[in-house]
Design brief:
DNA-binding; globular; Arc Repressor Mutant, subunit A; seven-stranded mixed beta sheet; homodimer; alpha/beta; three-stranded antiparallel beta sheet; Tscrpt_rep_Rex (chains A, B); 16% strand; 254 residues; 2 domains
DNA sequence: CCATCTTTGTGCACGCGTTCACAAAGACAT
DNA sequence: ATGTCTTTGTGAACGCGTGCACAAAGATGG
């Protein structure tokens, strides 16, 4: 997973648990694949395997949407695709803007997974005047000055921030002021937004750090098993080790 | 959050809850910023605000690492940076390979957040022969044929997959066979890996779909509040119907 | 129409994560 | 030393999410 999320006041949206909502896109993808192969029905067991989850969990997830299955048979693929799409709001068109057209922004603009699911890149915005007019993924980049007008004219409610960390909050503020109520943030910053605005965060380096943690753990366990234990899995005498300034990796800008 | 995660056998690594591990990079980032401003100490309240979490949660998180704070004062910034870095395994060098140098792969290669945290891009690998030798982010792209040798020679244990969906599983298999035990997957596919291998998934379109769900809900609520409901929350009923929408509590994440 | 077989939908229990609330610990002033 | 003030560290309660296990529902065949 990436990261994402902000505080979740624990209020279950319309009775559908947040955890379930997060899995619906997963099911949808698996179902779409089945649909393309013209598979008419699928059992919870099969679909769960395809989506990489437990079948009981899948059935419970679907139960929040309603009883769309047929006992003894399974689920109708087409029907389920429709129901989940509707539930996720993918039956309508969602214009999105991407702000910050660097390497990542360009990659996002070119990403095919958006258009295929009801998301339409309405505009690309960058602060660099030199970028203005230059087409990326077939869409001309526009200057930040026109941000508000672009949002309003296109009725954009979802914004993607792919700017450097420093520019993220100001851009976020402007997006929100212009009417955006959902933000996908790729900048390594904690954005503060007013109530009613959703923010999800994707942080590439955080994912790697989590992997590193587990990787280190594996390595530690291994050597501990050898008894030699070059890196004690748990050693922790803050008095002995320590080294407030010792090495410490580099680190980052905000 | 983004996505990420795969099976978590509920085995708490070394007593540190998975949820806590996922937040450590967040704290680290906030602490680093403080460190650069030469702030000597910070209270749980201040740091929590900077990281965007609850202060009680932060204190509990830190309590899993040990008692690194001073009551009445707070936490020593430098010391905490060191401790968290060490805990996450960032005090050592982690060579990573990125497979699939398309738009996204290139963006990742150029991403500064890696190098600064102990991650070193050891190699870029792509299946397109035309890419071979071409430098991306200053690193020459190598051909997939040499994947195994690259992994072995560099002692790589973390791999990043940024290939098209179809190529992901084969690439994953080869990475694992060559010795990689942690994978960050950007391809929209469920990877199957043997036990002992960690997989985290980042899926851009899933994040947007989750936002769309909440966005739709907001829109539905709004029109429902007007009672007139010019735009029914969901409408559409195929044959049967469904649609006990209407009210819905309220409250949203931020 | 009845028996059997398959698969859903869910009641229930359990465990993790979050949050509250407060005692304990230390800093600091007198 | 003693008292006051601040902030940590954590016991305990609570709620959400997960997974088991099974009854109910429907398909299918005789």
């Amino acid at each position: 997973m990436a990261t994402g999320r902000t505080h979740r006041p624990a209020t279950r949206s319309r009775g559908i648990p947040e955890a379930t909502v997060a899995r619906l896109p997963l099911y949808l993808r698996a179902l779409t694949a089945l649909s393309e192969r013209s598979v008419p029905t699928v059992s919870s067991e099969e679909l769960a395997a395809a989506a990489g989850v437990n079948s009981a969990k899948l059935r419970k997830d679907f139960s929040y949407l309603g009883s769309y299955g047929t006992r003894g048979v399974g689920y109708d693929v087409e029907y389920l695709v429709y129901q989940i799409s509707r539930e996720l709001g993918l039956t309508q068109d969602w214009p999105v803007v991407i702000v910050g057209i660097g390497n990542l922004g360009a990659a996002l603009a070119n990403y095919g997974g958006f258009a295929s699911r009801g998301f339409r890149v309405a505009a690309l915005i960058d602060a660099d005047p030199a970028m203005a007019g230059k087409p990326v993924a077939g869409i001309p980049v526009q200057h930040t000055d026109d941000l508000e007008k672009i949002i309003t004219d296109n009725g954009v409610s979802i914004g993607v921030i792919a700017t450097p960390a420093g520019a993220a909050q100001p851009v976020c503020d402007r997006l929100v002021a212009a009417g955006v109520t959902s933000i996908l943030n790729f900048a390594p910053t904690v954005l503060s937004v007013p109530d009613g605005v959703d923010v999800r965060k994707v942080d590439l380096s955080i994912e790697l750090q989590i992997l590193a943690f587990h990787e280190q753990r594996k390595a530690g366990e291994e050597s501990a098993a050898h008894e030699g234990a070059a890196v004690p899995p748990v050693a922790h005498d803050e008095t002995t080790d320590q080294g407030p300034d010792g090495d410490v990796p580099a680190v980052m800008p905000a």
